[in-house]
Write a structure and sequence with these properties.
This protein is an alpha+beta fold. Helix content is 33%, strand content 30%.
């Protein structure tokens, strides 16, 4: 998987998308990579 991850969700009744940049692969698998990228984006305000 390459490129950013896009999350689609509803805010105040409107569908919006949030783009989350992916971290480098650490060899722990795709699920770990997606979760770590999401948590890092929250922590860094990306």
């Amino acid at each position: 998987m390459s490129g950013p991850m896009t999350i689609y969700h509803d805010v105040a009744g409107e569908q919006v998308q949030t783009v989350v940049p992916l971290i480098e692969n650490s060899g722990k698998g795709l699920f770990y990579k997606k979760c770590r990228s999401f948590l890092d984006a929250i922590a860094n305000g990306d």
